[in-house]
């Protein structure tokens, strides 16, 4: 079992006294005298150290009887970086809870996806996070409810339903308990002009992150590889369609200096929590750039790249199966050719959607739809056609699972066992779809070229040996090495 930062009292006290925003989401401060919990960067005068206790999650604070601070809004902190850099049971469970699995399938569904008993899941989460899966999901529902109350004119009954509550009474009781205000009082406190949502199903919100964040390679990569009909870059925003549990959505994500502006249009508001979670994963917003960059900067040949543009993130995905298909389509072809192949599949087999702003036309085809395609209709070399059809058939019948619950090493091994899957394809899926922060691409031509220019070893074996010092952040080293090229993936579109 991992020991969280909240157990290091002296370090937590120093972070609170310095109001260090880098630790927001790592732990929460509960004040014994006021019975309020805060994020480390709370702007109020810090309490005396003897009046502070520290918890690993907002849910643990709520379980212990503390209410959320009305000034620093600790429930809106960036997520803990722990869940993105680890592949153990707790981290995989937290990624699933963020994806709404407990709300949709209950604790038994969570346990089934992870391959453990409900008792084991409960015990592990309680030991490390101070709260079980139901309490963690409840805290997430409360956060979603607050977001809807403060940013939309939705009736409270609709807010309760969309946030995942089973009844109006439970919704009212939870909001009062967590925020010490009724839902109507929360809305009354909202500054005028903040409530939006004139278009049914459309929400505007801010996605927080830990600074620094360099948007160039993050949005540049997404825009340069965008599949027509599914993705586009428009008016400074990356837009794409989303396949969600209850329906579909369209999101527009715009980088700003201190947050990501997110505009969501959903066919079913129950998908809000899942959509937010997937957008955060897409943009790697829960990363800890200070820890990552400090380690990479220790290599004197990487240090100039980090110092030039710190805070690079790994561009990920909102749909792991979609990315795996696109990785196969991109084998040994240019970015433009990969987009063309994907666009053909989208037009022929994707589900059509209506985009009020125009430009987006389809959801990316589901694995089940692609598995039913006649292979002879696929305009690609026979070997790659076999690779693609084998992949989608395994995804469709469930013999291969790609999702936030996956064990990274085990899934990589399963991919390598498929025909046509070499290390590059398996590792790029591990890096961008599964979210492995240590995935590395020593055979990638761009990486080898950058390594040679910097004076790093350029053969895969020697580069892998040198990169051992970059662990567990080799996927971020890839971003810095790629950034030495003039490829459009490294630049925000003009």
Descriptive overview:
- It is a single chain.
- This protein is of the alpha+beta class.
- The protein contains 23 helices and nine strands.
- It has helices at 9-17, 58-63, 82-85, 89-98, 101-114, 118-129, 133-151, 156-163, 168-179, 183-188, 215-224, 272-282, 289-297, 303-308, 320-329, 335-349, 367-371, 382-397, 408-416, 423-434, 445-454, 460-466, 474-482, and strands spanning 28-31, 36-38, 52-55, 67-68, 202-207, 231-234, 237-243, 248-255, 260-266.
- Strand 8 (248-255) and strand 9 (260-266) form a beta hairpin.
- The chain is globular and about 65 Å long.
What is the SS-derived class? Answer: alpha+beta
Widest sheet, order of strands: 5-9-8-7-6
Percentage of residues assigned to helices: 40-55%
Number of helices: 23
Total number of β-strand segments?
A: 9
Supply Rg: 23 Å
Can you tell me the residue ranges where pLDDT is under 50 for at least 5 consecutive residues? Answer: none
| Overall 3D form | globular
Average pLDDT: 92
């Amino acid at each position: 079992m991992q020991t969280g930062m909240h157990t290091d009292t002296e370090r937590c006290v120093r972070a609170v006294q310095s109001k260090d925003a880098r630790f927001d989401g790592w732990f929460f401060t509960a004040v014994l005298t006021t019975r309020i919990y805060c994020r480390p960067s709370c702007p109020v005068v810090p309490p005396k150290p003897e009046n502070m206790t520290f918890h690993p999650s907002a849910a643990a604070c709520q379980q212990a009887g503390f209410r959320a601070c009305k000034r620093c809004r600790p429930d809106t902190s960036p997520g803990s970086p722990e869940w993105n850099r680890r592949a153990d049971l707790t981290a995989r469970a937290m990624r699933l809870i963020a994806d709404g699995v407990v709300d949709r399938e209950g604790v038994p569904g969570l346990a089934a996806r992870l391959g453990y008993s409900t008792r084991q899941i409960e015990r592990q989460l309680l030991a490390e996070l101070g709260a079980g899966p139901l309490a963690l999901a409840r805290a997430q529902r409360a956060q979603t409810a607050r977001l809807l109350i403060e940013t939309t004119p939705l009736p409270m009954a609709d807010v309760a339903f969309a946030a995942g509550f089973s009844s109006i009474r439970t919704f009212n009781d939870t909001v009062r308990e967590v925020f010490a205000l009724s839902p109507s009082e929360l809305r009354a406190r909202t500054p005028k002009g903040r409530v939006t949502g004139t278009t049914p199903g459309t929400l505007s919100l801010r996605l927080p992150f830990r600074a620094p964040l360099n948007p160039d390679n993050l949005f540049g990569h997404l825009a340069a590889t965008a599949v027509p009909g599914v993705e586009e870059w428009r008016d400074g925003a990356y837009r794409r369609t989303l396949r969600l549990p209850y329906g579909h959505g369209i999101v527009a994500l715009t980088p700003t200096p201190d947050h990501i502006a997110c505009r969501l249009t959903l066919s079913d508001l129950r998908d809000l929590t899942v959509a937010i979670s997937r957008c955060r994963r897409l943009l790697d917003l829960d990363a800890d750039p200070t820890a990552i960059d400090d380690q990479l900067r220790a290599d004197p040949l990487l240090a100039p790249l980090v110092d030039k543009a710190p805070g690079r993130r790994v561009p990920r995905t909102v749909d792991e199966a979609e990315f795996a298909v696109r990785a196969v389509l991109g084998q040994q072809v240019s970015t433009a050719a990969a987009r063309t192949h994907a666009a053909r599949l989208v037009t022929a087999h994707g589900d059509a959607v209506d985009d009020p702003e125009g430009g987006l036309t389809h959801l990316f085809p589901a694995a089940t739809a692609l598995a039913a395609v006649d292979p002879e209709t696929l305009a690609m070399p026979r070997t790659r056609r076999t690779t693609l059809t084998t992949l989608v058939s395994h995804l469709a019948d469930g013999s291969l699972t790609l999702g936030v619950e996956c064990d990274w090493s085990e899934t990589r091994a399963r991919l390598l066992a498929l025909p046509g899957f070499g290390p590059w394809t398996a590792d790029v899926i591990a890096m961008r779809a599964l979210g492995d922060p240590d995935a590395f691409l020593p055979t990638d031509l761009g990486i080898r070229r950058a390594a040679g220019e910097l004076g790093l070893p350029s053969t895969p074996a020697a580069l892998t040996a040198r990169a051992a010092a970059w662990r567990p952040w080799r996927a971020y080293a890839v971003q810095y090495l790629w950034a030495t090229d003039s490829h459009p993936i490294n630049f925000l579109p003009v």
